[in-house]
């Protein structure tokens, strides 16, 4: 079953399925709603339901109180519609609207495509990195050195951070990978 969602004050709207969260559907349609954990534990995605009803989903009780729910608040990373909705929330329009974060990560998978290594980085559970197309991350290395890499995954597809690193063979030295 599909529902219509209208975002205030932007008047953006999208159609979504009943089995997806408001955040998932909004991102899928290209509307950058704010989020961080996507797991109901941080409160970044909290917004107002102006009209309509939702299934609030699973979340940390301390993040959304019963009083806030009574006032119409919901966590859009957890809430699924049970009717057409009008919601109110801030939309991210520029990189400056996204807080800079320093997070640990581990290499989840390496995939070699000809001379390019695709690196999949996994953040800790309950952490996601919101970004806009064209943004980059700094990998912090020993000695406080940092190296910048463009993010290659689509912003809404953020289970892993994906980097594409090109292999450069330098004469008389082992092969190296360089930022594509
Ligand atoms: S993004 Fe953290 S609670 Fe929704």
Walk me through the structure.
The chain is mostly beta strands and 180 residues long. The N and C termini lie far apart (42 Å). The protein has helices spanning 22-28, 66-70, and strands spanning 2-8, 12-17, 46-51, 54-55, 73-75, 80-81, 85-88, 106-113, 116-122, 136-140, 146-150, 161-168, 176-179. Strands 2-1-7-3-5 form a five-stranded mixed sheet. It folds into two domains: 2-93, Ubiquitin-like (UB roll); 97-179, Elongation Factor Tu (Ef-tu), domain 3 (Beta Barrel). It has two helices and 13 strands, in the order ββαββαβββββββββ. Bound molecules: FE2/S2 (inorganic) cluster. FE2/S2 (inorganic) cluster is lined by residues 35-38, 40-45, 63, 75, 77.
Low-confidence stretches: none
CATH architecture of the largest domain: Roll
Please give the number of β-strands: 13
Number of domains: 2
Rounded mean pLDDT is: 90
Bound molecules: FE2/S2 (inorganic) cluster
How would you spell out the order of helices and strands? EEHEEHEEEEEEEEE
Largest sheet: 5 strands, mixed
CATH topology of the largest domain: Ubiquitin-like (UB roll)
SS content category: mainly beta
The CATH top-level class label of the largest domain: Alpha Beta
Distance between the termini: 42 Å
Per DSSP, the total helix count is: 2
- Our Rg estimate from Cα atoms comes to 19 Å
State which percent range the strand residues make up.
35-45%
Shape from CA axes?
elongated
Give the strand order, joined by hyphens, for the main sheet: 2-1-7-3-5
DSSP helix fraction:
under 10%
CATH superfamily of the largest domain: Beta-grasp domain
């Amino acid at each position: 079953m599909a529902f219509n969602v209208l975002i205030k004050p932007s008047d953006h709207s999208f159609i979504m399925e009943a089995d997806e969260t408001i955040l998932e559907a909004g991102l899928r349609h290209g509307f950058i709603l704010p989020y961080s954990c996507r797991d109901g534990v941080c409160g970044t995605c909290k917004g107002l339901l102006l009209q309509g009803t939702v299934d609030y989903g699973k979340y940390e009780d301390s993040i959304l109180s019963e009083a806030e729910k009574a006032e119409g608040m919901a966590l859009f990373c957890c809430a699924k519609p049970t009717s057409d909705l009008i919601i109110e929330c801030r939309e991210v329009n520029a990189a400056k609207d996204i807080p800079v974060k320093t997070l640990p990560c581990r290499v989840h998978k390496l995939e070699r495509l000809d001379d390019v290594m695709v690196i999949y980085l996994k953040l800790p559970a309950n952490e996601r990195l919101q970004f806009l197309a064209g943004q980059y991350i700094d990998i912090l290395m020993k000695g406080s050195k940092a190296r910048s890499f463009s993010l290659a995954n689509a912003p809404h597809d953020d289970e892993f951070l994906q980097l594409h690193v090109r292999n450069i063979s330098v004469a008389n030295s082992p092969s190296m990978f360089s930022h594509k």
